[in-house]
Amino acid sequence: MKTNHCKIVDCTIRDGGLVNNWDFSIEFVQNLYAGLNEAGVDYMEIGYKNSPKLLKGADQVGPWRFLNDDFLRKVIPQKGNTKLSALVDIGRVDEDDILPREESMLDLIRVACYIKDVDKALDLVQKFHDLGYETTVNIMALSNVMEHELIEAFQMIRESVVDVVYIVDSYGSLDHNDVKHLVEKFKQHLPNKRLGVHTHNNMQLAFSNTLIAAELGVELLDASVYGMGRAAGNCPTELLVTHLKHSKYSLRPVLDIIERFMIPLREKEEWGYIIPYMITGTLDEHPRSAMALRVSDDKDKAVEFYDRLTTPETAIPKSK
Amino acid sequence: MKTNHCKIVDCTIRDGGLVNNWDFSIEFVQNLYAGLNEAGVDYMEIGYKNSPKLLKGADQVGPWRFLNDDFLRKVIPQKGNTKLSALVDIGRVDEDDILPREESMLDLIRVACYIKDVDKALDLVQKFHDLGYETTVNIMALSNVMEHELIEAFQMIRESVVDVVYIVDSYGSLDHNDVKHLVEKFKQHLPNKRLGVHTHNNMQLAFSNTLIAAELGVELLDASVYGMGRAAGNCPTELLVTHLKHSKYSLRPVLDIIERFMIPLREKEEWGYIIPYMITGTLDEHPRSAMALRVSDDKDKAVEFYDRLTTPETAIPKSK
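^ Those are the sequences you sent over. The predicted structure of the assembly is below.
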């Protein structure tokens, strides 16, 4: 498998933060950065660059939700080869918060959006690009996008300055054929853009789908250590560093992070292949219903949950 | 994806028995059979048909290690559409134990062997075939087999009566390219045989590899409910029944089994994607060293374990 072109973007803090409300200690993040840097991982997405002014409940979450350059300089006083990335959401970012790249700790700013907001995402991308950052646009929930919407988005993207366009399997519902179909379509319509992929593990296909995409030429591969990410989690960083044919990566520093930080963390926080997430994945749905189930007393009532999601509203009520 | 040709062989009791010493209650097995039958699963491998006379410590394991037809008739008084299968190991089966198929509860007998014993496996297959059973030969540890050994084995298999030949990824070390390579080779050399696949989940590729094999024409797909199987476990039955394009399968009865039996069982017994198993998988090794680690006090010491497996014996001793 030819994957020399690939770069790994570790999203442990950013996507994993959706699991624990970004409650990572500075020590945790510093150790993660050191480990990823030693492992040869190309990018670390260290959080969101949203504005606390534009989000409710901002005082209840960790600092990785609203990255601040002064803070980041204290966290990582000495940068290694691993670049730093941040994600922003449409409507939650204050553009005045973003320093020019040469004054910032960040190298890459990624904009996540649904298909209907690609135009807004590209406006932001233009601003970040003008400030000197590498940029990506991450189109979420692609499994629920209709062909004509995608074609329209492609036209705008093609004419934009964005460096990389992401295929995002938000619901963990895609298999290798779906990934192949999407990558081929993106390549066909966006011949001037590099591609990225972000997967979720609802059906235990996150790693496999990432490998398939890599082999088809996708360059930026999102992953997280021990798969930590919302709900079923992501493609595990440890599997990519050991399996990609790319001599610069090494597994040992990632194992060290897992042993010292992720195994104890997984005792307290939950993510991964868990049946309700498998159910939303196979039904091609957002995991929010399963996330709600998992914090309820009925967390293991898989059949009732499945019935609820698959019974049309017109079904006969169970009891009078 | 065209997978109409596929049949699922659920190995929960047989391969899962390697986790809990076949300590499944009769109620558990009866419920599993009912659930699999309702889900449309084609075969249930209900254990090993080895002889207690030929195995040490036979009195310390559950009855599913040494299936007996009188016992089976009590367990499953009424068979549904789901056929019953048993596995035998070379040198551990007493051929006189095997009834003619019309007097037996079993439909399928599978013979597991390493490449060097394919001749012995085929001798057994001939006997089971003559007794009226469907037969398979399951060649284990294919990732460690040299080309010329395989070619030699193919010749014997081609001329044998065996119905199905299995590709077995014993170490969970294969990726989709490896599976594709093996399936193409098997198809080329065994044009007169049907194929099967048995995967392990050390690198979270068991389901994906099974799908890839199915798409390439492999017919019998091994799986187990909630992935229960030795070490990292197998391809999860629930994922196959929901994802294979084959209208006869249904997910709900499998979810019911998971909810009532597998979730509580997983609290007591351990299998699945666990870092030491990932390490033996990526190193293409038998998981026995990782299994020993997992029952020791050092069960989460991943780095030390990795170092031990990757340091040549000639390395400088750590201390004098």
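The radius of gyration of chain A is 19 Å. The domain at 7-268 of chain A is CATH 3.20.20.70 (TIM Barrel).

Shout if you want it in another format.
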